[in-house]
Each structure stands twice: as C-alpha cells, then as structure tokens.
C-alpha cells in the first residue's frame, strides 16, 4: 500500500443570502459572532477617545499657566512699558526718585520726580553669570554622569548617585550662606589675586579683584547648584540604554571609553539638551544665592570677571521693599517689567535650545563631534 498525503483545508465560508454566513458543511455562523471583532475594535477606539478627553486638560494646563503668568505681567507692567520704552533695556539708570516730593506726569504716567528705570546692567549680570555656570556645569555634569554610569562599581555607584541627587535638593539659601561664609573669603584672598597676577594677560581676567563678591563667584555657586541636575539626569539615561549597544560596540573592538563616547552619549543627546535647558532655567531664575554672593552692583556693567553684579531675580527681591514705598506704584510696575523681561529671556533661551535639538535631529547627527 502506498503512502498518501491528505491535505485538510478549512471549509469555505459562504453567504446564505439571509444576512448570515454558512460553512461548507452547512453550519450557520450567526451575524453577532461575525461582528464581534468590529465591536471590540470600536470599543477600544471609544476608550482611547475617552482617555484622551480626560487627560487633555492636564496636558494643556502648563501652557495655560505660562500664558496666564505672562499675560498678568504684561498687563500689570504695561504703564511702565509705555513710560520707559526701549530705554528700559538699553540704559543703566535705575533710580526710584524723590520719595518725599509730589508726583509728576511723564508720558501720560504718574511717577516721582527724578525717577528713571534702566536694567542693562541687570541683563548683563544675569546672562553672564548663567553663561559661566552652564559653561562649567555642562562638561562637569556630563563627565560625572559618565563616571557614575560606567566607572563606579555596583554598590558604590548607588550611594554616590544618591548623594549627587541629594545635592540637587539643597535649598538655594544654603548655597548662598555657604558661598558667603566659605567661598567668598577663599576666592577673594587666595584665588582671585593669583588669577589676576598670572592670568591677567587674558581679557577680563586682569584688573582689581575686589573682596570676593562678583561675577565669577556667582557663576561658581550657580555651577554647584546645577551640576547635579545634569549629572543625575544624564546618568539615568546612560544606565537605561539597551545592553546590546554596549555589547555590539565592544564586540567590534571599541574600548569602554569609545563605547561610552561614540555610542552611548549620542543616544542620550536629547536628554542632555533637555537637562541643560532645565539647568539654564534654574540659573536664570536663581535669587537668594546670587543675592548673597553677587555684590549688589547698581547702574554699571562689570569691567572684569571679578566685578560685582546683580541679576534680575535677585534685584526684584532686593528692591521690592523700597519700591512699595512709591505712592504712584510705578516702581513696583517697573519691577514687574523686569520680571517680564526675565520671562522673555527664559523663553528665548529655551526656544533656542529646542531649535538646536530640532536641527540636530534633521541633520541626523549621531556623534558629538
């Protein structure tokens, strides 16, 4: 007897002309059973639609909050905007005027005699101190993240990472007090004089060093405050990269450093830029620490890296009490205009970083070099 192979095929399904279906054997398939997959798909789509409707208010809440804050500042500061014009950001002339004289009319606004408001020195102090802090913190933060992710063995990595993250939670006033009691005397008596003598040929590193208050001190204190933000975020991103990336690079003959630098870091480029944006935002808006170590400069631009400065956020805090004594209220509105300018600068900086990330993605960059 020869072997025969039997091919078993599923019986075809045919319509019976009565709204249902039948198999080849004559078995009826009810319409409800045939429509069950469609019902499940529609139910799934309805659940997704409902979920989106529920979470959409939470998604747009940050946007609404930002618009509301900017709208309030713009509305409250509008009289000061009309009074000051563009001179507000191009001049160094902040003066509350005579508090005991009768108010006068200027550009349709009431203000004290002799009052004028210009914040170019505040813009310079804010941007320069932030630039110094980010320029130092970015390589330190990324380097710390690389070391914590790949250079520290098991249990020690957990503890060191924990202390780095705890450093990010220290209140800014603590950094300011530490800067006032420790950093300022050390820098003013030892570091700054040495830099002025040996590095004075470098632009802005020569000249009088002062007592330790100033631009570089503020930048260094801000650096210590924002390094943990970058280090902790980038370290978590590196650790969570797929193990296959490391194994593939090592299998091709790359060293551990080459694997980290040319394979893992490009993969966390977005995270690095995002953490830098957060760090920059904190440096721009920092108040108490800079107020305690900046020196409280008023109406002049820094001549070198040791010059005293004042940032916009610190200036608002330091001047609010005096501004509230202005019976016309124009001084407080001018401070609101300072806050409005600070918001605009923050939006521009964040928008520029987003554009940098967008262009990098379009260019298809896969390495840091």
The level 1 CATH classification of the domain at 121-312 is Mainly Alpha
Q: Compute the separation of the termini in Å.
A: 75 Å
What would CATH call the architecture of the domain at 121-312?
A: Orthogonal Bundle
* Secondary-structure element string: EEEHHEEHHHHHHHHHH
Q: Could you describe the largest sheet, including whether it forms a barrel? A: 3 strands, antiparallel
CATH homologous superfamily (4th level) name of the domain at 121-312: MetI-like
Features:
369 residues, flat, 4% strand, 3-stranded antiparallel beta sheet, mainly alpha, disordered C terminus, MetI-like fold, two-stranded antiparallel ribbon
Write structural notes for this entry.
This protein has a three-stranded antiparallel sheet with strand order 1-2-3. The chain has a two-stranded antiparallel sheet with strand order 4-5. It is mainly alpha-helical and 369 residues long. Helices cover 67% and strands 4% of the residues. The model is unreliable at 1-20 and 365-369 (pLDDT under 50). The protein has a domain at 121-312: MetI-like (MetI-like fold). The protein has helices at residues 31-84, 87-90, 120-151, 154-168, 172-198, 215-239, 243-251, 256-267, 269-285, 288-293, 312-323, 330-363; strands at residues 13-15, 21-23, 28-29, 104-106, 109-111. It contains twelve helices and five strands. Helix 3 (120-151) packs antiparallel against helix 9, helix 6 packs antiparallel against helix 9 and helix 7 crosses helix 8.
């Amino acid at each position: 007897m020869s072997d025969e192979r039997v091919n078993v095929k599923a019986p075809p399904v045919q319509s019976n002309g009565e709204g249902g279906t039948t198999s080849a054997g004559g078995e009826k398939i009810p319409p409800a059973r045939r429509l069950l997959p469609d019902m499940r798909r529609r139910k799934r789509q309805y659940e997704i639609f409902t979920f989106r409707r529920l979470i959409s208010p939470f998604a747009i809440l940050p946007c609404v909050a930002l618009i509301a804050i900017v709208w309030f500042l713009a509305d409250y500061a509008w009289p000061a905007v009309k009074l000051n014009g563009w001179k507000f950001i191009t001049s160094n002339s902040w003066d509350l005027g005579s508090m005991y004289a009768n108010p006068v009319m200027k550009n349709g606004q009431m203000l004290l005699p002799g009052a004028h408001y210009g914040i170019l020195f505040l813009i310079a102090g804010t941007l320069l101190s932030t630039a110094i802090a980010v320029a130092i913190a970015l390589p330190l933060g990324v380097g710390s993240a690389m070391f914590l992710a790949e250079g520290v063995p098991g249990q020690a990595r957990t503890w060191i990472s924990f202390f780095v993250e705890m450093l990010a939670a220290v209140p800014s006033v603590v950094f300011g007090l530490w800067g006032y009691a420790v950093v300022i005397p050390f820098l003013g008596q030892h570091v700054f004089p040495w830099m002025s003598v040996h590095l004075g040929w470098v632009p802005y590193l020569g000249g009088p060093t002062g007592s330790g208050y100033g631009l570089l001190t503020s930048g260094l204190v801000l650096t210590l405050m924002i390094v943990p933000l970058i280090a902790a975020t980038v370290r978590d991103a590196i650790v969570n990269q797929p193990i296959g990336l490391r194994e593939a690079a090592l299998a091709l003959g790359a060293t551990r450093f080459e694997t980290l630098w040319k394979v893992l870091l490009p993969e966390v480029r977005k995270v690095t830029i995002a953490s830098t944006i957060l760090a920059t935002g904190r440096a721009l808006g920092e108040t108490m620490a800079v107020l305690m170590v900046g020196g409280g400069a008023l109406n002049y631009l820094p001549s070198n890296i040791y010059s005293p400065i004042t940032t916009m956020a610190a200036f608002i805090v330091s001047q609010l009490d005096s501004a509230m004594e202005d019976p016309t209220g124009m001084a407080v509105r001018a401070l609101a205009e300072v806050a409005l300018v600070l918001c605009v600068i923050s939006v521009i900086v964040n928008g520029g970083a987003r554009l940098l990330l967008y262009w990098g993605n379009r260019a298809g960059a896969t390495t840091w070099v």
